[in-house]
Predict the 3D structure of the following.
Amino acid sequence: MAIILDGKQTAKKITDELKLKVQNLDKKPSLAVIMAGNNPASEVYVKNKEKKALEIGFNSIIKKTDENITKEELLKIIKELNEDDNINAILLQLPLPKHLNEKDFLDKIDPKKDVDGFCSYNLGKLLKNDSPYAIPCTPKGIIRLLDEYNIDIESKIALVIGRSNIVGKPVSILLLNRNSTVIMTHTKTKNLENLTKTADILICAAGKKEMIKKEMIKENAVIIDVGITRDNDGKLKGDVDFNDVKEKTSYITPVPGGIGPMTIAMLMENTYELYKIQKGIK
Ligand code: NAD
């Protein structure tokens, strides 16, 4: 019988603890979110991040810009936030408007304020297993949820579907750093089903609605579903066909209520940790 990995509850526990820690600080940690343009999904995400930040007791600054912002103007905003001692964490909301390339901006964020952990310095440190200032929030949230339920990672076969810089690659590295045997898969992978059937831990981050069916998984596998797509009646769906696979799994995340809330909780934790690094607090 599958155990549901309750991301919502675990995230609440993490943010409740942060709230208590923030009460004892002289100055509040500040999270700045840059929102270039008006992507409707991003607007919802940014609003949720702000709500959670304020609930914990952080300052929340949203720098909303016009859709047509130039590269130079956006670089200027990043520079000002880097130089502002009142700002501890900077998040550049993705995707950017089409005429801008995220590669031109992510490395311009001060690594000590890079709350998403997407700059080359922090990703390089992650690759070397050498204390990055921040670890990307979704991958960090996945590992935290596995740990919360005492799920063994070491020596397990972990298969990751998806190789994006924000989920697939960093979560593969985190699993490797925890001595898992990692299989990375993507759209060019052949016979995916033969591989997924070998996985003790299956992490799905493809963004393909309900692509994982019960024939594709190993008996008693641990299933982490990162995917979020909306079906025709507006309901959120994961990459995993939850009802089809549930009985065959040992642990499984729901969508929604799994990795989504863990991602926001890790963003809040990263904000607090960057604040501590900047203030020299142990
Ligand atoms: P992406 O589009 O950048 O990457 C998707 C990856 O999946 C690619 O590497 C691609 O090769 C692979 N892929 C796609 N279809 C595949 C298939 N049929 N077989 C094998 N590989 C396949 O996406 P992303 O930004 O990594 O996000 C992935 C999903 O996770 C999306 O649904 C996104 O909305 C969701 N997401 C959720 C959270 C969260 O907080 N829950 C955070 C980030 C992303």
Remarks:
- The first strand starts at residue 3 and ends at 4.
